[in-house]
Design brief:
Order of helices and strands of chain B: HEEEHEHEHEHHEHEHHHEHHHEH
Shape of chain A: elongated
Oligomer: heterodimer
Number of domains of chain B: 2
Distance between the termini of chain A: 56 Å
Mean pLDDT of chain A: 94
Radius of gyration of chain A: 22 Å
Strand order of the largest sheet of chain A: 4-5-6-7-8
Largest sheet of chain A: 5 strands, mixed
Low-confidence stretches of chain B: 399-417
Radius of gyration of chain B: 23 Å
Order of helices and strands of chain A: EHEEHHHHEEHEEEHH
CATH topology of the largest domain in chain B: TIM Barrel
Mean pLDDT of chain B: 90
Structural class of chain B: alpha/beta
Number of strands of chain B: 10
Helix content of chain B: 25-40%
CATH class of the largest domain in chain B: Alpha Beta
Number of helices of chain B: 14
Chain lengths: ~240, ~425
């Protein structure tokens, strides 16, 4: 079986789709640690803008909205995401029309599942992201999301905090979205050292107090809390870290 | 800056208000401003009781001139009292918001000095937030009964949602338990606000008044009204007042009073009322189909199951052909599932396997549907009834375990005016 390994960028993925399209059985992945079987033939995909464009045009011809979903799905943290998206594209090209709601096809259900997870995480983090005020007045929000969603969060916060400067820092992928009060960009960002403003501690303390006071202690329901706010997100939530 | 103690007192007094929703407003940010509305609402945290924190829910003061029997802040109660200034509230809101702790403010107050004085300070707070702090995030403001109408209208133009709690499901009970409030003092401002909203709507004007509408809340089980009466009232409030939500909070005795029952209403009743409320709002049910006026909802079956059991002659229905409004009436099939089915069957005839893969829960539904003519439900009415009963037991046990320690005491009370 042919295994197409791409570099993780959408362009490289679309190139791989072009190369793999005629194959009967193959796998597309950007996971370099993938388990290979004896009969596998590894192909390192060379990014080719022209091939990628042809694939994108082909998709758009049958479903003008699919490309947005596909680009979103490629942000998934799932190691099989490229294959899932590839199979979805195959069904779309076969049918020559939108398959978004063809819930009877397993490939469509799988594709919708990863989309659902990504969009769900975006919505969740619009709420759970926490900013702290730095000494310079800019706000800083560190996090490590399951999926690569910083770019999807930036428009929301740039609209909301129009007049503020802020940084959203994905520590897992070492990238950051930066907004200077006018426009935002995405860039590489390794470690960050932050000096907090003199008020930061006080507001954080008030927030923790609020969190404690608003809880109805007589009605414990930890399970529901954890379902809605999974423990892996707690690391960056002041109200869940009582170390002072 | 606000002291920790005042924050504690005024949060603890506010926390029993059920509503914390931040949905329904698409308010835009202004140039140089802070915040906007998110139509779907956003939860910012969850407390160990499983509830969501969306808004900073706080009272301006818990010093109350009223003496409602059921309220922990009533004038005769011996509790810590506090009052904070508009600026303190603005500062806290804006700073919580910038850190993305909250989606906005839910501001309420006990009635201190006079209704007008209280309303004036609430108005001053929201005015400052909007005009001085340039805050465009979500604001839910509680209305103060008997406050001057002009003042209420001015406030309504600044906030996203307002609510007057009708407190009890009948005028008689209100007279008995909250004698200083009257039906008129709660319904009249609600009606005025509705008319102000309609006026903008019908004249195609820019929408300023309450883009997220009005809600209300009532206590269940402190007074003798039946579920049927409560639901009739609910339906009337949705129809006549155009409310977005009616919230219920089940009564549990905490105040010793010969006017209040000694036992609580239980949370199952509250749960059933919410289920019925959803059927009315989203599933095309009429109150009369769910519950007769002098009756209570079934404890054993959720209202949709109970309805389906009374109407077995309509079932089973064929999944591949039944129209959406019929799919919505199948126990176990919710709005999302029904929609998914209508979309998916355009591509292919669906069988049970397809439904399962689409994550449609068939445990209850299977007794009421066929797929390509096949039926996998129980073969007699008695068996269906029993299967649903067992299934319901699980559901109720979950529900009850959520809340049921005896010291739930305080939790059933509405903590506001």
């Amino acid at each position: 079986m042919k295994i197409f390994i791409c570099d993780g960028s959408p362009v490289c993925f679309f190139t791989a789709v072009f190369d793999a399209f005629a194959e009967k059985q193959c796998l597309i992945t950007s996971d370099s640690e993938i388990q290979l079987s004896l009969d596998s033939e590894v192909i390192r995909v060379e990014t080719d803008e022209a091939k990628a464009l042809k694939v994108k045009r082909g998709i758009e011809k049958h479903d003008s909205e699919a490309i947005y979903d596909i680009l979103t799905a490629l942000r998934s943290g799932d190691s099989l995401k490229e294959q899932t998206v590839f199979e979805y594209i195959q069904r779309l090209m076969e049918r020559k029309s939108s398959v978004k709601k063809a819930y009877n096809l397993p490939e469509v259900i799988e594709f919708n599942n990863i989309l659902y997870k990504i969009n769900g995480e975006v919505h969740r983090l619009k709420g759970l992201l926490r900013f702290m005020e730095s000494a310079s007045g800019a706000f800083y929000a560190p996090y490590s999301p399951d999926n690569d969603i910083t770019e999807l969060l930036m428009p929301h916060f740039a609209e909301r905090f129009k007049a503020e400067k802020f940084v959203i820092h994905d520590l897992k992928r070492k990238i950051a979205g930066m907004y200077d009060g006018r426009e935002w960009i995405i860039g590489y960002a390794g470690e960050a050292e932050i000096y907090l403003s003199e008020y930061e501690k006080a507001f954080e303390t008030l927030w923790k107090k609020y969190y404690k006071s608003v809880t109805i202690k007589e009605r414990p329901h930890e399970k529901q809390m954890k379902n809605s706010m999974p423990v892996r997100y707690w690391k960056y939530l002041p109200e869940k870290n009582n170390n002072d | 800056m606000l002291s920790e103690e005042n924050l504690e007192i005024l949060t603890e007094s506010a926390k029993y208000d059920v509503s914390c929703s931040s949905s329904g407003s698409k308010r835009k940010n202004s140039a140089g401003g802070l915040g906007n509305g998110a139509a779907s609402g956003i939860c910012h945290s969850f407390t160990p009781d499983g509830r969501c924190i969306s808004l900073l829910k706080i009272l301006m003061s818990n010093e109350c001139v009223y003496d409602c029997e059921y309220c922990p802040n009533r004038t005769s109660a011996n509790v810590r009292r506090a009052r904070i200034s508009p600026d303190e509230i603005c500062e806290l809101t804006v700073n919580f918001y910038k850190r993305n702790y909250i989606e906005g403010l839910f501001l309420s107050s006990a009635v201190f000095e006079t209704p007008n004085k209280t309303m004036e300070l609430l108005y001053e707070t929201v005015l400052k937030l909007r005009k001085i702090y340039n805050f465009n995030g979500y604001i839910h403001l509680k209305g103060i009964p008997y406050a001057d109408e002009a003042l209420v209208m001015k406030a309504a133009k600044l906030v996203d949602r307002m609510s007057y709690n009708i407190e009890l499901p009948s005028e008689k009970s209100l007279k008995m338990l909250a004698p200083q409030k009257t039906k008129q003092s709660l319904l009249l401002p609600m009606k005025n606000l509705k008319e102000a909203i309609d006026y903008e709507k019908f004249n195609n004007m820019r929408r300023n008044v309450l883009p997220a509408g009005q809600t209300t809340q009532m206590i269940i089980g402190a007074s003798p009204e039946s579920d049927g009466q409560i639901l009739k009232l609910t339906e009337a409030l949705y129809r006549n007042m155009n409310l977005r939500r009616v919230y219920y909070s089940s009564y549990i005795p905490v105040v010793q009073s010969n006017k209040l029952p000694a036992v609580g209403a239980g949370l199952l009743r509250e749960h059933r009322l919410y289920q019925a409320d959803w059927l009315i709002r989203f599933y095309g049910f009429d109150v009369n189909e769910i519950c007769r006026e002098d009756e209570n909802l079934s404890e054993d079956y959720d209202p949709k199951c109970a309805w389906a059991l009374r109407n077995m002659n309509l079932f089973p229905i064929e999944i591949n052909r039944a129209p959406l409004e019929i799919l919505l009436r199948v126990p176990g099939i919710g709005a999302k599932s029904a929609y998914k089915i209508t979309e998916a069957r355009k591509f292919a005839e669906l069988d049970f396997d397809n439904l399962a893969k689409m994550r449609i829960v068939l445990k209850r539904a299977k007794h009421f549907i066929t797929c390509k003519g096949k039926f996998y439900g129980a073969d007699s009415y008695e068996k269906v009834k029993y299967a649903l009963l067992l299934d319901g037991k699980w559901e109720t046990r979950e529900q009850i375990s959520m809340f049921s320690t005896p010291s739930t005491a305080l939790s059933a009370l509405t903590g506001n005016i």
